[in-house]
């Protein structure tokens, strides 16, 4: 029993070039489906029909949903196969997944293409920072200087109208920067998104392999693809885009780089804060249903507020129209969790330096709240462990009973 | 730190690249850093500034230099990588306030020309990890693939600096290399010898925690005119990786756009590696796991009495292969040998847990029991250390360190009485 990747084909559909393959699930009872990667006709020759994008895009779903093997009749780069085994070993170590067999034939040679570098270009802080870092470090003629930005429909957003607006904005930024913008449309994640509670599968396991699958789909054009790191060195923790994981999605022909890890989020914002193009076209918000016609940041969600705080501390928020507001007030702050804790700690000193004690106090309150909540959660966990180990779950039963009673009580119901 | 006067020359029987290393902040004396090889590999040795930069960056960080100045063009990928690697070392072993070494060098605007055709090498010590890297590579890559390993690099001046012992090792691996379809490149360097004596007094902490990966990578960069990918065998598998100088999160950062440094063997435990090698007669004839190089004799490179030898012999027993090899002084292990020579430390305790199960499975309950005794002894020692730490913590926090002071007085008096 195995997942089968079959029926690989390249075609033109609805004015786009497309590669697709059928994914047949055999162990976990999911229905068969097609995975596709599409791009504009002008990039048709860059789209590569090989097993790589489909295998890289299916591996994490396969281990997540409990498949035992993956089979494809197409040939696979031995380096990629080795890397996928290492990636699965990390997943086993972090999350207890089994390492599954990859039943494929091996490609005996590699295709040599002229080197060309790309990055995933969402318009967010991390992607602009990677571009900036690369363009400052790699001189104009260097083959690893990023020349392509890839923007993807079907990951965090799947509203065609919104996507086209974002794409147009990014195109203007890309033109100013001097890179080509390549739009890619894919359902590599859409097949699972609705059932992905709290986006945990995406965040902890899938993100970099999904992005890498898109890079492999374009490997006729690119030989190096940078995935922007979401955390700095000191804040790394096991998740789906980790410096230990991402390079394993490389093949002999396409190198996947986990880029920008040497900078904290605050250092990244600082790096791009004097880059006019980035500041004007910044898009950090994931609440795409709240996007305006030209403003792609709601200004109220945690990510927006956090970024705006950093821009305030650098004195540049009032210079950009990318957010609906030109300043942040303490009441705009939302609860902080462990994932974002370090980002806020980094903001304290620069905000203080700018004389924004109101914001410093508000952040400190939110950090303390987060600490308190974590302490409570730890205590709850300990009580739960004690209860199940020594009291046969009696505390839990009593607690459930009280809550049941509370729910039934007419006073509470009202 | 300044790296100056880079040159390539032939000195006596060897080809050499060298540079003068001048310390600016820490008051150490200047020295000539060199990497040498034999004349037949002279064309492979390139005067690559990367080799010196990678060799010096961790010593510079360790000894507190503020910058490394190098008047040469370096790859921007390597520069970013070295900054990231220093970031990891700071995160693991220093406080966030520790300044990273500034790399003061121009960046290359293109790849070096002519481009080196794809060719892979690896560091070949003759131990379990390096043999497993070669074996796994042979199984994974078709022979004509550019990542199929063609060269084995054997380095003099890292763990070993005894010319006679090196000759024995080299002789042993030369025959093996041709059997496995690789060329053996002997390399001689002082990139670690400058620090080794003082590091030895400190339990080789600098080497183990910070320098290992970059030292090997520096040697690889010296051969970037021949090689485009070089594998470093990992001693630890994924679940047992800790912050140390051979961590893959660190080593990948020593790559440049034209040379990849690959951390290999992460998905196999040491026992799995032994199992992989245990049916290969060529490996069994040439294995060298022992670090006690002063005990080496021609044809006898494993003392059979140190912890590492014993650990490997036990693994070979569990794989049913010890009796098929002559590289150890004996064909079997006894309980007494385990009792006498095995000392378990934190960094490799997990290897013994794995061994105990394998020995039981292989029908050697006697050795499994001996290993279990050692594990128990280690865990007991660990519990005592933990209690001591707790007492010390309590003493520091609430008793102003009086318990420690009283303890010291008692020990001193006892010494006097003795």
In short:
The complex is a heterodimer of chains A (414) and B (418). Chain A has 414 residues and is α/β, with parallel strands linked by helices.
Question: Which structural traits does this protein have?
Answer:
heterodimer, A: alpha/beta, 2 domains, ten-stranded mixed beta sheet, 13 helices, 10 strands, 44% helix, B: 418 residues, globular
Task: Characterise the protein shown here.
The complex is a heterodimer of chains A (414) and B (418). Chain A is α/β, with parallel strands linked by helices and 414 residues long. Chain A folds into two domains: 257 residues, no CATH class; 89 residues, no CATH class. Chain A has a ten-stranded mixed β-sheet, sandwiched between helices. In chain A, helix 3 packs across helix 7, helix 9 packs parallel to helix 10 and helix 10 packs antiparallel against helix 11. Chain A is globular. The model of chain A has no long low-confidence stretch (mean pLDDT 92). Chain B is α/β, with parallel strands linked by helices. Chain B contains 14 helices and ten strands. Chain B is globular and about 65 Å long.
């Amino acid at each position: 029993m195995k997942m089968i990747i079959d029926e690989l084909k390249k075609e033109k559909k609805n004015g786009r070039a497309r590669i697709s393959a059928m994914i047949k699930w055999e162990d976990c009872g999911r229905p068969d489906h097609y995975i596709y990667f599409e791009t504009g006709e002008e990039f048709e020759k860059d789209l590569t029909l090989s097993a790589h994008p489909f295998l890289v895009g299916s591996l994490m779903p396969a281990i997540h949903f409990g498949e035992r093997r993956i089979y494809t009749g197409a040939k696979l780069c031995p380096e990629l196969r080795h890397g996928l085994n290492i990636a699965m070993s990390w997943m086993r170590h972090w999350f207890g997944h089994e390492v599954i067999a990859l039943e494929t034939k091996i490609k005996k040679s590699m295709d040599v293409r002229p080197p060309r570098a790309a990055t995933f270009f969402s318009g967010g802080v991390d992607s602009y920072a990677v571009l900036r870092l690369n363009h400052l470090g790699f001189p104009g003629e260097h083959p690893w200087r990023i020349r392509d930005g890839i923007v993807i429909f079907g990951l965090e957003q799947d509203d065609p109208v919104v996507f086209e607006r974002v794409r147009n904005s990014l195109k203007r930024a890309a033109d100013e920067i001097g890179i080509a913008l390549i739009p890619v449309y894919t359902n590599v994640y859409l097949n699972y998104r609705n059932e992905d509670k709290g986006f945990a599968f995406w965040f902890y396991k899938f993100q970099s392999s999904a992005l890498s699958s898109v890079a492999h789909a374009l490997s006729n054009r690119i030989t190096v693809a940078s995935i922007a790191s979401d955390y700095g060195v000191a804040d790394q923790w096991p998740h789906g885009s980790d410096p230990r994981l991402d390079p394993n999605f490389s093949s002999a022909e396409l190198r996947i780089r986990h880029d920008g890890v040497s900078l904290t989020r605050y250092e990244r914002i600082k790096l791009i804060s004097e880059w006019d193009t980035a500041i004007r076209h910044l898009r950090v918000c994931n609440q795409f249903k709240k996007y305006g016609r030209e403003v792609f940041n709601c200004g109220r969600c945690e990510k927006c507020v956090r970024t705006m705080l950093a821009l305030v501390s650098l004195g540049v928020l009032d210079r950009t129209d990318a957010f609906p507001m030109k300043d942040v007030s303490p009441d705009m702050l939302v609860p902080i969790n462990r994932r974002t804790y370090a980002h806020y700690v980094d903001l304290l000193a620069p905000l203080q330096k700018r004389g924004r004690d109101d914001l410093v106090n508000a952040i400190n309150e939110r950090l303390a709240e987060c600490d308190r909540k974590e302490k409570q959660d730890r205590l709850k966990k300990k009580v739960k462990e004690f209860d199940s180990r020594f009291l046969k779950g009696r505390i839990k039963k009593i607690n459930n009973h009280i809550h049941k009673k509370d729910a039934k009580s007419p006073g509470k119901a009202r | 730190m300044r790296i100056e006067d880079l040159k390539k020359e032939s000195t006596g029987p060897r080809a050499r690249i060298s540079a003068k290393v001048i310390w600016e902040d820490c008051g150490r004396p200047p020295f000539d850093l060199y990497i040498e090889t034999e004349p037949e590999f002279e064309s492979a040795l390139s005067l690559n500034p990367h080799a010196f930069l990678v060799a010096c960056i961790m010593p510079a960080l360790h000894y507190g230099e503020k910058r490394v100045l190098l008047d040469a063009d370096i790859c921007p990928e390597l520069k970013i990588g070295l900054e990231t690697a220093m970031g990891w070392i700071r995160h693991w072993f220093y406080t966030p306030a520790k300044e990273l070494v500034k790399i003061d060098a121009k960046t290359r605007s293109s790849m070096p020309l002519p481009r080196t055709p794809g060719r892979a090498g690896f560091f070949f010590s003759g131990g379990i990890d390096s043999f497993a890297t070669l074996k796994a590579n042979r199984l994974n890559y078709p022979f004509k693939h550019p990542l199929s390993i063609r060269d084995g690099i054997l380095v003099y001046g890292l763990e070993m600096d005894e010319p006679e012992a090196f000759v024995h090792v080299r002789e042993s691996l030369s025959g093996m290399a041709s059997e496995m379809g690789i060329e053996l490149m002997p390399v001689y360097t002082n990139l670690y010898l400058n620090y080794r004596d003082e590091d030895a007094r400190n339990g080789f902490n600098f080497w183990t925690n910070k320098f290992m990966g970059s030292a090997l990578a520096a040697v690889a960069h010296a051969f970037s005119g021949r090689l485009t990918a070089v594998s470093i065998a990992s001693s630890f598998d994924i679940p047992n990786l800790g912050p140390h100088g051979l961590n893959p999160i660190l080593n990948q950062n020593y790559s440049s756009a034209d040379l990849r440094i690959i951390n290999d063997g992460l998905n196999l435990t040491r026992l799995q590696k032994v199992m992989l090698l245990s049916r290969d007669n060529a490996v069994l004839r040439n294995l060298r796991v022992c670090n006690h190089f002063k005990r080496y004799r021609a044809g006898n490179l494993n003392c059979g009495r140190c912890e590492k030898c014993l650990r490997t012999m036990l693994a070979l027993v569990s794989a049913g292969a010890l009796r098929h090899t002559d590289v150890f002084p004996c064909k079997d292990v006894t309980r007494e040998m385990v009792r006498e020579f095995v000392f378990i430390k934190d960094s490799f305790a997990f290897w013994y847990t794995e061994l105990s199960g394998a020995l039981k499975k292989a029908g050697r309950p006697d050795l499994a029991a001996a290993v279990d005794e050692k594990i128990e002894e280690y865990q007991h020692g660990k519990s005592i250390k933990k209690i001591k730490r707790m007492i010390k913590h309590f003493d520091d926090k609430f008793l102003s360190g009086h318990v420690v002071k009283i303890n010291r007085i008692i020990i001193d008096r006892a010494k006097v009485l003795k």
